[in-house]
Structure formats: structure tokens, C-alpha cells
Amino acid sequence: GHCDGKRSEFEELKRDVVEAVVERFREPREEFEKIRGDRAYLEEVAKMGAEKARERSGRILKEVKMRVGLL
Asked: Which has the closest alpha carbon to 41: 53, 33, 28?
């Protein structure tokens, strides 16, 4: 029928959009998969974060104790 031209045009557009979306998200997804797969790396980052937080809270606690006269 006369719709065939429009249908294939739409299919082509849809395919182009899908390709563009896949291309756009391929790199971040690859990076995510790589990081997710690297458990040791994630654990190291978590440990460093915890150490920094402990260090900061230790400094804050010391400051508080000094101000209230406990140190």
C-alpha cells in the first residue's frame, strides 16, 4: 500500500535512534561493568572513604573535647 514508504522511513529512524542511544551509553556502561567487576577496587575505595571519615570525625571529636574542657 501507500503506507510502505512511511513505515520503512519510520523503521529506519527508529533503528538510528536505537543505535545512537546504544552508542551514547556504551562507554559509561563498559566503565560501570569494569568497576562493578573489580570488587577489590570497590573495597579499596570504600576503605579509603571510611578511613577519611574516621580521621575527620576524630579531628572533630578532639575539637569538641577541647572546647568542653575534656582535653
From this structure: 33
pLDDT digits (tens, 9 = 90+) for 17-40: 889 888 888 887 788 888 778 888
Q: What is the pLDDT of residue 2?
A: 57
Neighbours of 43 (CB within 10 A): 10
DSSP state of 2: T
Alpha carbon 13 to chain centroid distance? 30
What DSSP state is assigned to residue 71? -
Predicted pLDDT at 4: 65
Grid cell for residue 64: 569538641
Q: How far apart are CA 34 and CA 48, in angstroms?
A: 20
Q: Nearest CA to 46 among 19, 68, 54?
A: 54
